[in-house]
Amino acid sequence: MKARNEWRNDKEYVALVADLLRQPAVQKLADYTQHHHSDRLQHSIAVSYDSYRIAKRLHLDYVSTARAGLLHDLFYYDWRTTKFDLGTHAFIHPRVALRNAEKLTRLNSKERDIILKHMFGATLAVPKYAESLIVSLVDDYEAEHEFFSPLKKKLHQRMKKYRLAKIN
Ligand SMILES: [Fe+2]
Ligand SMILES: [Fe+2]
Predict the structure, then answer these.
(1) Residue ranges per structural domain of the chain
(2) Which of 39, 67, 69, 149 gives 48 a disulfide partner, CB atoms 3.0 to 4.6 angstroms apart?
(3) Where in the numbering of this chain does the HD domain appear (predicted)?
(4) Which ligand is nearest to the CA of 94?
(5) What CATH number was assigned to the domain covering residues 6-167?
């Protein structure tokens, strides 16, 4: 996202996610630091909005992309300090987010896949839909604040991995 509040001027986008943004469970994400420079709500909106724009450009399901992108990190613990017995944060938090998202809204199968597979690359759960792949890539991009060429390189590697996984 070029500017932090760019999404606010995009009326079509806002209309797609307004009901979710109003929910206290989503607003609460602002209480958690995601990365050094952003809280989890800012991060979630950035992932949702950028993924939405890419999906729209590619004539994909931008509605599901916008909504599930916003909910992909709907969990409430500090991932830097909370440790789990059952598995890594990368494995666990998409499941926690999915469970929380299902309490807020009805999700279609694509939205469920987007949330559950957004750690593709770090985990072996292969996205079923192109929209899930987009969100997983944008999530990395937003997290690392990389610029164009590293993203392009990463996209290349990810697509290769995706194709291989589809074949096997
Ligand atoms: Fe995440
Ligand atoms: Fe994320």
Answers:
(1) 6-167
(2) 69
(3) 40-143
(4) 1
(5) 1.10.3210.10
